[in-house]
Amino acid sequence: MTSAEEKAPIDIDDVDTDFVEMIIKTGGPNIRSCYQCGTCSGSCPAGARTNYLVRGIIRKALLGLKEDCISGPELWYCTTCYTCTDRCPQDVKPTDVIKAIRNVAVAEGYMLEPHQKVALKVLEAGHAVPLDKESWEKLREKVNIEPVPPNASRFPDAIEEIVKIAKKTGFDKLVAEKEASE
Amino acid sequence: MAKKQKYYHFLGCIIPHRYPSIESAARLVFKDLGMELLDMEGASCCPAPGVFGSFDRVTWAAIAARNLTIAEVGGHDITTGCNGCFASMFDADHEMKHDPELKAAVNEALAEVGREYKGTIEVTHHVDALHRIGLDKIREKVTRPLTGVRMAIHPGCHWMRPKHIKKKDESERPHILRDICETTGAEYVPYKDELICCGAGGAVRTADVKTALDFTKQKFDSLESVGGADIIVTPCPFCELQLDLGQVEIQKHFETEYHYDILHVVELLALAFGHEPEEFGLTTHLQYQMRKNEPNWERLGIEVQKAEDAVPTE
Fold first, then answer.
1. Residue of A nearest to B170 (CA)
2. Distance (Å) of CA B202 to CA A96, B33, B43, B83
3. Side-chain-facing half-sphere of B275: CA atoms under 13 Å
4. Is B265 among the domain residues?
5. Are residues B167 and B231 in the same domain?
6. Residues 6 or more apart whose Cβ sits within 8 Å of residue B111
7. Sequence-ordered list of residues with C-beta below 8 angstroms from that of B33, at least 6 positions apart, any chain
8. What's the complex ipTM?
9. What is the residue-averaged pLDDT of chain B?
10. Do B195 and B59 share a structural domain?
C-alpha cells in the first residue's frame, strides 16, 4: 500500500457501528473512550519493530472499517504485554480491544495456521504444549519427579471434558472450519 | 503450631512438559518454607491467555473456569509458577465476577461436564505465596548466599499487568519480585529494558518466532550495555523458555551469541536454600541440552560434583 494509491474518503457521519458494538460485546467495552492520543502505540514494543499500530487499529474500528482491522496479519503482533493498558489515560484497555478484534477475526475465518494447530493440541492433549515425546518424560525423571505429571497428560478424562466444553462453545467448529477451507 | 498453608499446585504446560526443573524446585522451596503443595489432578492447559483469549473469549474462560472448579471442589487456593497460567485463571475469575453474561455462558458450557464455577477460591502466583510468607522467613532459609552474583530480573507481564486488575505491584516500578530475589544475597543489576515483554506472549512466538526473538534480543542488548549480568531471574516458564532456548534461536536467526543462565525465581531460591543443582535438574534447561553445555558454575559461585561422581539423593 502506498500513498500514490487512491483511497476512497471516509464519511465520518455515516459510520457502520456494528463492528464497534461487536467489539464492545466481545471484551472491549471502553473502545469509544479513545481520543487518539497515541500513548498506546508510543508504549508498544511490538509497534517498535513491526507495522502493528494499536492506535490505528482502534481508529479504524471506530470508523467501522471492519475488514481492514480483521484481515491484516499485523493484528497478531500484539504480545498482550498490557503496557498500553496500564498507560492509557482514557482506560480504553487497548489490549482487550485487540483481543476482542482477534475474536471477531477468528470467527470470520482469519486464523493463522500455527495458531490453529495450537488450538487443536489443546483439544487433543488437554495442553497447548503437550507431553508428546518420551524424551520429555525422561527430562522429568532427570529432575527427580514422576515421568507423567498429574495433569491432563495423566488423566484422559480431562481431555474428554475439554472436548465437550469446546463443542458446547462452538470452538471445535471454529478450529475445524478453517481446516476444511484450506 | 500454625496451620500449614496448603495450595493446589497448578502446573500448566511449559513447566511440567518442558522446564520440569521449575516444578521440582518449587516442591523443594515450598517444603522448606513449610507450605504444602497439593496435586491438582486432571488440570489442563490454563489455557494460554493471549492465545485462547484471542481466539474465543468464552472458550478461554470456560477452560480456565474448569480448572478453577477442581480447586473449588477441593477447597484450597491455587498457586502457580507461570505468569500466563496465573493470568488466565486470575483474569477469567475476575471477568466472570464482573460480567454476569460471561459467567452464565461459561457455566452453560461447564454444565456439559457436570461442573459449575462458583468463584470461591483465590488464584495466586508463587511470587504471591512467597511474598505472603515473608521476606524474613525466606531469608532464614538461605544457607548458600549468592553473594557477588550479578542478577538481572525479568518480571514479565502477566503477574502484574494490567495493574488495575492484578493490584499486585506498581507495574512501572515493581519491587516485590526483586525483594524476594534479593533475599538470596545476589546483587540486583538494573537495566533500561527490564520491564519490556520477552516477546513470546500473545501468540506471537507461535506465529513469528523471529519477531518474538527481536524483543528478547533488545532485552539482552540493554543488559549488555550496562555490563551484563551473571544470571537473569524470571517468575515465568514461558519467559524462561524465550530467554533460555531463545539464546540458541537468536544465534541462528541473528548470528549474535549470548550466554546467560536463566533461572526461575524458585530455582534461584532452591540454590540459595542449599539444594544442589542436580536435586532439581538445573542442567536440563533446553539451552544447555541444545548447546551441550552447563550453567556457568564459576559465575554462579557453585561447586558441583562431576556427573559420574554424583550420588542419587535417595
1. A86
2. 11, 34, 22, 12
3. 27
4. yes
5. yes
6. none
7. B130, B133, B137, B138, B141
8. 0.94
9. 96
10. no
